[in-house]
Amino acid sequence: MLKNRSIVSIDDVSQPELEDIFKTADEMSDHLKQGKPLKILDGRIMATFFFEPSTRTRLSFESAMNRLGGSVISVSEARSSSVAKGETLADTVRMAESYSDVIVIRHPMEGAAKLAARFSSKPIINAGDGSGQHPTQTIMDLYTIRKELGNINGKTVTMVGDLRYGRTVHSLLLALSNYDVEVNLISPEILKIPEYIISRLPKNFKVNVSADFDSAVEQSDVLYVTRIQKERFTDQNEYLSVIGSYSVTPETLEKMKEKSIIMHPLPRIDEIAPEVDLSPKAAYFKQASNGVPVRMALVSMILG
Ligand code: NCD
Questions:
Q1: Ligand 1 proximity of 114 Cβ (cutoff 6 Å)
Q2: Which atom of ligand 1 is nearest to the CA of 288?
Q3: Staple 248 to which of 88, 194, 258, 272, CB 3.0 to 4.6 Å?
Q4: Best CA proximity match to 12, nearest among 147, 131, 113
Q5: pLDDT digits (tens, 9 = 90+) for 203-230
């Protein structure tokens, strides 16, 4: 179903396709645990373009492709590629499609992956386009909730932090609106979720914009914490006015429901205290490690 398809937005993946990815990711995870080599993408090539910093996303895509027996070619800096010579994204992509079978791209410009997909006959995977979306992060976020809590339906999810520039929350909120969940959104006033995201949610979807942090924490099954996206601010004073707005501490843990989890796409700055890491509620490192089986599932399905 996903064969040869680009994943630019989370809307590009249907509900049954998500279920398929989760099932395949479970299988990939079993293979990884058993240390069995999987050579299903032998001879296939992934090109990765990371024109913005990345640790987890890039490493997990590359690890996933290697684990599947494929190989990776990559450009990590615009400076070291012909982009620095003024090459357009369209030309970069036209070149890459003749060198590879699937192209993973992270770019500071919102809409970059969509543009790339228009010029490429090979599937494009959006690994983050500015403040736009981060669909593969969302797939692993949903996978993590399902794995840690058994189900996504029926849960209350609270997203806190930079909801304006945070692309992971944009994709996740859109994805959650297809489930029977309740969502609380908590952010400083200037970092509220953009109206263009809210307007895309179904009318009957339960979302509490500007929820109160303490009461949201008490009701939540998932506390999804995000970093203030410093690099997106044009006015550094504005950034300084919101740093440290919310932080999750051992006291926060005490208010949380017994069977609840804390997630974070990482990297974190100061929004989760290191002492919280020891709690069984801290799911963010497991979330990050789910990146490999989920991306193995996705890439193997796209490459058929
Ligand atoms: C996120 C991103 O790049 O949007 N990181 C990631 O991919 N795991 C979140 C962030 O940078 O804050």
A1: no
A2: 8
A3: 272
A4: 113
A5: 999 999 977 999 999 999 999 999 999 9
In terms of Cα–Cα distance, which of 166, 168, 215 is closest to 187?
Answer: 166
Residue 265 Cβ < 6 Å to ligand 1: yes
CB 21 within 8 A of CB 299: no
What integer pLDDT is reported at residue 89 of this predicted model? 87
Supply the residue whose CA is at minimum distance from atom 7 of ligand 1.
57
| Amino acid sitting at position 41 | L
Q: Which atom of ligand 1 is nearest to the CA of 56?
A: 8
pLDDT of res. 78:
67
Taken in order of first residue, the domains within the chain and their CATH numbers are 10-133+290-302 (3.40.50.1370), 135-288 (3.40.50.1370)
Query: What's residue 84's pLDDT?
Result: 64
Pick the residue whose CA is nearest to atom 8 on ligand 1.
265
- 41: burial class by Cβ within 10 Å (0-12, 13-18, 19+)? buried
Q: What is the pLDDT of residue 86?
A: 67
pLDDT computed for residue 79 by the predictor: 65
The answer to whether the beta carbons of residues 260 and 223 sit under 8 Å apart is: yes
Regions in the chain scoring below 70 on pLDDT: 78-81, 83-84, 86
pLDDT at residue 17, rounded to an integer: 97
Our mutation pick for probing the ligand 1 site, out of 50, 51, 57, counting the most ligand atoms within 8 A of Cβ, is: 57
pLDDT of amino acid 80: 63
Q: Which two tokens stand for residue 177?
A: 């609106």
